């Protein structure tokens, strides 16, 4: 259990590594996005787990081409010293057409160690 409640933050107060990843992901720039992760990082998205930068690179490449969508950062929160949540609104040609997703980041040594994306 955390002693401190989550702190709402402005999106521009997110750590640089998170904003670098989010911008690169939005721009479909896999080469830059992958630099934000540790070598052993884990991403969980849509019920699938991707472990290591090779699997994460494949996931990023696939997600960049599978659907066309816009993504807007709508909120940010720091839950403890190494964990952040960035809430996004997506609209596009995926099933349902619109969704709000929480990107839950865990950092280690200035890089993303874990990313969980869920509604």
UniProtKB/TrEMBL annotation:
Residue ranges occupied by any SnoaL-like domain in the UniProt entry: 18-113
Transmembrane ranges, per UniProt, are: none
Q: Which residues form a coiled coil?
A: none
Q: What is this protein called?
A: Nuclear transport factor 2 family protein
Organism of this sequence: Streptomyces auratus AGR0001
């Amino acid at each position: 259990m955390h002693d401190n409640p989550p702190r709402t933050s402005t999106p521009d107060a997110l750590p640089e590594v998170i904003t670098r990843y989010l911008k690169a992901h939005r721009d479909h720039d896999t080469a830059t996005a992958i630099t934000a992760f540790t070598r052993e990082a884990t991403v969980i998205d849509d019920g699938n787990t991707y472990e290591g930068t090779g699997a994460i690179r494949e996931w990023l490449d696939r997600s960049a081409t599978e659907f066309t969508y816009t993504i807007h950062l709508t909120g940010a929160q720091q839950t403890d010293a190494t964990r952040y949540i960035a809430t996004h609104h997506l609209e596009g040609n995926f099933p349902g057409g619109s969704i709000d997703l929480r990107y839950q980041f865990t950092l280690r040594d200035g890089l993303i160690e874990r990313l969980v994306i869920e509604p």
